[in-house]
Design brief:
The chain has helices spanning about 30-40, 60-75, 85-95, 115-120, and strands spanning about 5-10, 15-20, 25, 45-50, 55-60, 80-85, 110. By secondary structure, it is of the alpha/beta class. It has one domain: STAS domain (Transcription Regulator spoIIAA), CATH 3.30.750. The strands form two sheets. The protein has a five-stranded mixed beta sheet with strand order 1-2-4-6-7. It has a two-stranded parallel sheet with strand order 3-5. The longest helix has 14 residues, at about 30-40.
């Protein structure tokens, strides 16, 4: 595990699990630092599983953290799966078309209910 005030990460084979630590992803400094930490943690993986259990609020700058990660791993076809999303975050990400529950709609991020479902989905 790494030492950070923004996230914890662990690796199991080619899966990386990121646990977000702040309740709010609001400031540009924190969001850009988070993006950089997630990119560094994702080196050599095929899926990044991101746990939102601690997050209650995310600003538009927070969205950029995840879009930056998406851009950084796009050429390697790395899947990014969000799990433990609050209802409010789920609604916001759906409205922004960053996630979708429809198999006919392509979105940059996938979602799962919990960690076990995210691991199963990534396998």
């Amino acid at each position: 595990m790494n030492e950070s005030t923004l996230m914890l990460s662990s690796r199991e084979g080619d899966l990386v699990k990121v646990t977000l630590l702040p309740e709010e992803l609001r400031t540009p400094e924190d969001c850009y630092d988070l993006r950089n930490e997630m990119i560094a943690a994702s080196t050599g993986c095929r899926a990044v599983l991101i746990d939102f259990a601690n997050v209650t609020f995310m600003s538009s700058v927070g969205l950029l953290s995840f879009l930056g990660l998406r851009r950084a791993v796009a050429e390697r076809d790395v899947r990014i799966i969000f799990f433990n999303l609050s209802d409010n975050l789920d609604a916001m990400l759906t409205l922004c078309r960053l996630i979708s529950d429809s198999p006919h709609s392509k979105a940059p991020f996938e979602t799962a209910k919990d960690e076990a479902a995210a691991v199963a989905q990534a396998s």
